[in-house]
């Protein structure tokens, strides 16, 4: 079967760094995406890794290791507005398979 | 500002009634996805289309759900008859084939009583 595992909740304080891990088991793996979803909102695209290594976009970075079937999303200089759910999603050339999501709570 | 639109945004109905949800993908996108999101199951893919042709609807309960793309600017998801367990947020997303980014609509929040 196809599945993605990520922690259900993470808490942190403003200004901190947090890492959200994702392990996947899929067939025909192409790459790993990350989406952010605020309460009551729609998922929005954050990043995509097709190759091993780190991709940096502003305060957010995403990492992929194909050999370990593992990736993570790194959020730096956390702000209150980063409180949201974060989903990893595996691309297998057809459609995305989403993890259950990690709820990040940022406190002051 | 191109975006995916969905109607209705909210729907309350009684068990047994037909529900139709509509989605207008971003102009030029040729791939359309329907997802269902619940607390228990998370985001589940129901069906998706490429160039208006259905590619995969294995995630959809066939006996009551149907998805179509009458034209390139409209995708529909129908539930008939609806049941309380169908209560969820239904998202439509669109993308350009070959690109990984999916653009989600605001969702239809469905409550079946």
Overall description:
The complex is a heterodimer of chains A (108) and B (113). In chain A, the strands form two sheets. In chain A, strands 2, 4, 5, 9, 10 and 11 form a six-stranded mixed β-sheet that branches. A five-stranded antiparallel β-sheet of chain A has the order 1-3-8-7-6, with no helix packed on it. Helix content of chain A is 0%, strand content 58%. The relative contact order of chain A is 0.35. With 108 residues, chain A is mostly beta strands. The A-B interface holds A 31, 33, 41-45, 48, 50, 87, 91, 94-101 and B 33, 42-45, 48, 55-56, 91, 93, 100-107.
Low-confidence stretches of chain B: none
**What is the percentage of strand-forming residues of chain B?**
over 45%
Proportion of helical residues of chain B? under 10%
Helical/strand content category of chain B: mainly beta
Question: Number of helix segments of chain A?
Answer: 0
Shape of chain A: globular
Which value, in Å, is the CA radius of gyration of chain B?
13 Å
Class based on secondary structure composition and strand pairing of chain A:
mainly beta
What fraction, in percent, of the residue positions of chain A are helical?
under 10%
Number of helical runs of chain B?
Answer: 0
Largest sheet of chain B: 7 strands, mixed
Helix and strand run of chain A:
EEEEEEEEEEE
- Report the sheet-strand fraction of chain A: over 45%
Low-confidence stretches of chain A: none
Oligomer: heterodimer
| Mean pLDDT over the full residue set of chain A | 94
**Rg from Cα of chain A:** 13 Å
Q: Tell me the total number of β-strands of chain A.
A: 11
Q: Distance N terminus to C terminus of chain B?
A: 36 Å
């Amino acid at each position: 079967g196809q599945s993605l595992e990520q922690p259900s909740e993470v808490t942190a304080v403003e200004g901190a760094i947090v890492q959200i891990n994702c392990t996947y088991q899929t067939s025909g793996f192409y790459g790993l995406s990350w989406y952010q979803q605020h309460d009551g909102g729609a998922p929005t695209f954050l990043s995509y890794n097709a190759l091993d290594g780190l991709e940096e976009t502003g305060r957010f970075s995403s990492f992929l290791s194909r050999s370990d079937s593992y990736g993570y999303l790194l959020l730096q200089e956390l702000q209150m507005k980063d409180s949201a759910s974060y989903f990893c999603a595996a691309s297998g050339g057809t459609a995305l398979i989403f993890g259950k999501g990690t709820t990040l709570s940022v406190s002051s | 500002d191109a975006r995916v639109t969905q109607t209705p945004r909210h729907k309350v109905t009684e068990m047994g009634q037909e529900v139709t949800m509509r989605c207008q993908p971003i102009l030029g996108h040729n791939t359309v996805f329907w997802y269902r999101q619940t607390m228990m199951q998370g985001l589940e893919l129901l069906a998706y289309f490429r160039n208006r042709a259905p590619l995969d609807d294995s995630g959809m309960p066939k006996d009551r759900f149907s998805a179509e793309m009458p034209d390139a600017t409209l995708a529909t998801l129908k539930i008939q008859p609806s049941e309380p367990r169908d209560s969820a947020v239904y998202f439509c997303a669109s993308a350009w084939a070959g690109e990984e980014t999916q653009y989600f609509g605001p969702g239809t929040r469905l409550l079946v009583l």
